[in-house]
Specification:
This protein is mostly helical. The protein is 47% helix and 4% strand. A hairpin with a 5-residue loop joins strand 1 and strand 2.
């Protein structure tokens, strides 16, 4: 009897490899999945489960399915990829050093010009300045800086 390819091993490896790629090209676009990268975790789980089922199949029915040599290797590769992703996203990304060039609380911000939500340019000095002919009204601006990778 000719042995068949163990498709669960290889499809599981493809799922495990697709999880970090899907995060980098799709899930990183949305704040809900970028800030806490939970979305690739079920993909990793499905891929590792598929490899585990294929590995069990290869050892229980060695006369019918292939994969007794490649199966453990694919499982180690899958667990390593998953572990590196979890380590990089949940541990290393939280260890970023404090930015030395960012303004501190109470420090005057340098003048800048940025586009607003409608695409019009807004300058900090124009917002803080008073209009001609109007009474001098003290103004303040709240600046919020987000550190991130977008």
């Amino acid at each position: 009897m000719k042995r068949r390819w163990n498709a669960l091993l290889w499809s599981g490896l493809l799922l495990v490899l697709a999880a970090p790629v899907s995060y980098l090209f799709f899930f990183v676009r949305f704040p809900a999945t970028r800030d806490i990268p939970w979305a690739p975790l079920p993909i990793f789980g499905a891929g590792l489960a598929s490899v585990a089922i294929g590995l069990r199949r290869a050892f229980r029915e060695p006369g019918l399915y292939r994969g007794r040599v490649a199966g453990p290797i694919l499982m180690v590769v899958g667990v390593a990829v998953c572990g590196l992703f979890v380590f990089g996203m949940f541990i290393q990304a939280r260890r970023l050093p404090a930015s030395s060039g960012a303004p501190r609380v109470g420090q005057a911000a340098p003048d800048f010009t940025l586009p607003d939500q409608d695409g019009h340019e807004v300058t900090l000095s124009k917002i803080l300045g008073t209009e001609a002919g109007a009474a001098a009204v003290p103004r303040a601006v709240l600046l919020i800086f987000y550190r991130g990778y977008w």
